[in-house]
Amino acid sequence: MSNILYFETLDSTQSYLKEHFTQLDDQTVVVAGTQTAGRGRFDRRWISEPGGLYFSVLLKPTKTDFLANITQLMALSICQTAEKYGIEPNLKWPNDVQVSGKKLCGILSEAVAQNGKIACLVLGVGINVAQKDLSHVGQPAVSLRELGVNIAKEDFLQAVLDIFFQHYEAVVAEGFSVIYPAYKERFPFLGKQIAVKNGTSAVTGIAQDLSPRGTLLLQTQNGPQEILIGDLIV
Ligand code: BTN
């Protein structure tokens, strides 16, 4: 059972855990009703208005070989939780959860190093639950409420954590292979022409497969390419 700390407002649940990780137990979860300085991937802002579910999980894994796969497990856990409420979400590699092309959830994964080694991983999750307005998101977005799901944020959070921690130790030990079939089943872009943007540059090609380590295998004009990080654009 995780220790869950609730705050009405924080600058960022992510920053809170990164600042306090030495005093906090493994698997501590921090939740905020709103964030004044929420952060997204690639240094983007994450506007965090009331109604959304904003939380970060502190992880101190015994083995740090598969951190990217732990993040993918969180995305999968959110997908599977949404499915329990009758939604048909899909994964947008690496960590987004979307419904009919609209963003439902984003995940920011940050490793903290101390004395030259990884001390912890902080997984930050933003889920659109019941915000009034999502026009600031910068891409098509949708909330659970718009999808007809009216659920208490705490209940959704608990369901996500239950699924995540059921598989967490196995992913820490063995990596992507633990979740490969479930992840692939929810990844509808295989065989499709896609682009992956990383900063200002983009690579285009056909999505061939996910590799055994959870990276994206793209068939480009210049041959096969393994993509380690980026934003998938379809
Ligand atoms: C993304 O860019 O899609 C990832 C967004 C992650 C937002 C969450 S909200 C809780 C946690 N605190 C933050 O400041 N960011 C993450």
Could you say which structural class the secondary elements and strand pairing correspond to?
A: alpha+beta
Strand content: 25-35%
**SSE pattern, N- to C-terminal:** EHEEHEEEEHHEEEEE
CATH 4th-level superfamily of the largest domain: Bira Bifunctional Protein, Domain 2
- Overall geometry: globular
- Under CATH, the topology of the largest domain can be stated as BirA Bifunctional Protein, domain 2
Please compute the radius of gyration using only Cα atoms. 17 Å
Intertermini distance: 38 Å
Ligands = biotin
Roughly how much helix do the residues carry, as a percent range?
A: 10-25%
Secondary structure: number of strands:
12
Described by strand count, sense and barrel closure, the largest sheet is: 7 strands, mixed
Number of helices: 4
CATH architecture verdict of the largest domain: 2-Layer Sandwich
* Overall residue-averaged pLDDT value: 95
